[in-house]
Every structure is written in C-alpha cells, then in structure tokens.
Write a structure and sequence with these properties.
The protein is mostly helical. It is built from four helices and two strands, in the order H-H-E-E-H-H. The protein is flat, with a radius of gyration of 18 Å.
C-alpha cells in the first residue's frame, strides 16, 4: 500500500535554505564548545569564580533567579522528590549556561 507523506515527514518539508531556525541547520561550533563547557563542572566553577556567569538568569516558578538561587531550588526539588520539576530546572540552567558561554566564545572572552 502506498501512502503520501504526512505532516512532519521530511519529504513534505521545503528545501533547506540555510535558515538558522530550521531543525536541519548544523549547530555552530561555538554552541558545541559551549555545550562541552557547560557539561564540565570544573569549567563552570572556573567561569563562576571569574564572575563571567554573574548575569545568567533562569526563570523558575515564574520568577527570574540568578544561577546560585536556581541551583539551590534545583537541589531542594531533588531533596523533596519533585524530580520532574528538578529535571526542567536542570535543563533551563544548562541552556542558560550554554547560551552565556556561547556569547563569551563569540566575543573572544574565553
């Protein structure tokens, strides 16, 4: 039986034209470097000590928190067994750190 491609099938997508928002767009090398740094606790601690991540803000419970406060809220969620919420906070923290580090890399400050 032959079926036509449906919504979401890559065959129905328009031709890739280099738009950065396209999910087929390659990741920038700065983003990949930033992701590696964000997953390395020692490097993140070094950046925090150099005060390069002081302006990072994470939205938790509809309020923007600094990195230390968000870490504390993450810890409390884990300790109280609220793992789905902790997972969301952890992802938001990682994304915020990656974005900040990517910006530092692009500005040649790292």
């Amino acid at each position: 039986m032959n079926t036509l491609p449906g919504y979401g099938d890559e065959a129905t997508w328009p031709k890739y034209n280099g738009q950065p928002g396209d999910p087929r767009a390659p990741l920038s090398s700065a983003w990949e470097q930033a992701l590696d740094i964000a997953h390395n606790a020692e490097r993140v601690a070094e950046l925090r000590a150099r005060k390069l991540l002081d302006d990072v803000q994470i939205k938790v419970d509809s309020e923007f928190r600094d990195l230390l406060e968000a870490d504390e809220l993450l810890r409390m969620r884990v300790m109280t067994g609220r793992y789905p919420e902790a997972d969301c906070i952890a992802r938001d923290i990682t994304t915020a750190i990656v974005s900040a580090v990517e910006k530092l890399i692009e500005e040649d400050r790292l």
